[in-house]
Amino acid sequence: MIKLNKENREKYTKIILCALQEDDLEEFRKHYLELHPTDQVDIFITLNKEEREQVYSFLDPKEFAVIFSGLYVMHEQVCFEELSEDYASEMMNHMFTDDVVKFLKTVKEDEAKKIVERMDEEKAQKIIAILEYDLETAGAVMTDEFITAFREETAEDVLNKIRKKGQDAEIVYYTYVIDDKGCLAGVVSLKKLIASESNEQVENIMHKHPVSILVDMGQEEVGKVVKKYDLLAVPVVTEKNQLMGVITVDDVMDLIELQTTKNFGEFSTVKDANETNLTAFQAAKKRAPWIIFLMFAGMVTSGVIGQFEDTLESVVILAAFMPMLMDSGGNVGTQSLAVSVRGLALGTIEMKDLWRMIRREFSTGFLIGLTCMILISMLILILYGNFILGIVVGLSILITLSISAVIGLVFPLILNKLKFDPAIASGPFITTINDVVGLLIYFSIATTFMKYL
Residue 441's pLDDT is what? Predict the structure, then answer.
């Protein structure tokens, strides 16, 4: 199997395209199938419809199943529509169960049902069973293609089983040991099997306390378990310890990517609106509620300004520094928000450390604010020759940045404590809150010093 570097990629792409154009089946298969599956996918997604259809005719469903499994959702959907029903069904039969389930979740329910009905009955039943699990749980992403063994089997017995069934298993590095009721009893690695005597019983070489996860565990927690124990795969069990499936590290990476995308969308108030295959209307429909909500929330800011209308009319120059003050408070709050949400996601924040973290963020905001206070006060003194105005603006930014840092940290923690997703404490929300706080501080200080301005 060849893995392409940057220099060879163009060379192989040209050879493969030339073989397609000349309808040279032998030349195409010779060069295309020797590539790493990832490189096969990279070349495939560059082809036009006519070239893709030629690839379908040059590869059998089993060979193409590897490529299809590596495609992004948007490419999978385009590709699937181009395949004949028989070809697609046969391809699905050769895909790993979790990859089939992943694809079926992207299509309409009635279409998914038709796809499953055309598949082999045994495979279809396994897929239906997995589809019944809640979408956010471990059961929804597990696969049942793995190797099992019994305690009394020998190392040679298991190695023979791996040789025989390994091609159809998603992972062969771990063999899961079960009892006669199908309950997880242990796990033995391929390394251990190879290094042991051929007649050594599995019971003597297996790890008797394997790390496992419950079938209804949240997918985000699954990623944390795999990362913590540095696993290539983790067994999924019921509350009675019955082995139901395994989740491999590549699926965990997909989950992390999905969760990161979801958090990014919530963080920027475009949840579910950052899919590249959405139309402009669909994206606008998803984003509009947030923008409208924040627009009305911004009216609170206008209300604060209205409350200090007399102060603003008396010292009009105060208006010139409002955007700077609001932007600075929002930026510092968003930085603290990112630290807080990331810590919650990684599980590095504990409530017992709350006051220490608040002191740290307050001190950070204070030091940043102090620096800004000195710089802006000096600039106002030079440009306007007004020492008191410099004090008002400088003191306002010092207090605002100190408080904004604490708000950005604490708000997600409060939401998390109330069992809400802390990612909804997005940048725009924090910015709006800090705008109101910053203006209250600014005009309160300005009103106090108004007779000196």
Answer: 92
Residue carrying the six token digits 């309808």: 23
Which one-letter amino acid corresponds to residue 426? S
Q: What is the pTM of this model?
A: 0.62
Closest CA to 189 of 152, 158, 157: 158
Residue 33 phi/psi, 5-degree rounding, is -75, -10
Question: What's 146-263's CATH class?
Answer: alpha beta
At 215-247, the pLDDT tens digits run: 999 888 898 898 889 889 999 999 999 999 999
Q: State whether CATH 1.10.1790.10 applies to domain 6-136.
A: no
What is the pLDDT, as a whole number, of residue 148? 95
Buried-state track 364-392, b at ≥16 Cβ within 10 A, e below 16: bbbebbeebbeebbeebbeeeebebbbbb
With a CB cutoff of 8 Å and minimum separation 6, the contacts of 231 are 211, 225, 249
Give the architecture-level CATH label for domain 280-452: Orthogonal Bundle (1.10)
Residues 6+ apart with CB under 8 A from 221: 213
Q: Using CA atoms, how far apart are residues 251 and 138, in angstroms rounded to an integer? A: 10
Over 60: is that where the pLDDT of 398 sits? yes
pLDDT at 321 over 70: yes
Which token pair is 359? 């002191």
What region does 23 belong to: left with phi over 0, alpha with psi -120 to 50, or beta?
Answer: left
- What pLDDT does residue 273 have? 46
pLDDT score recorded for residue 261: 58
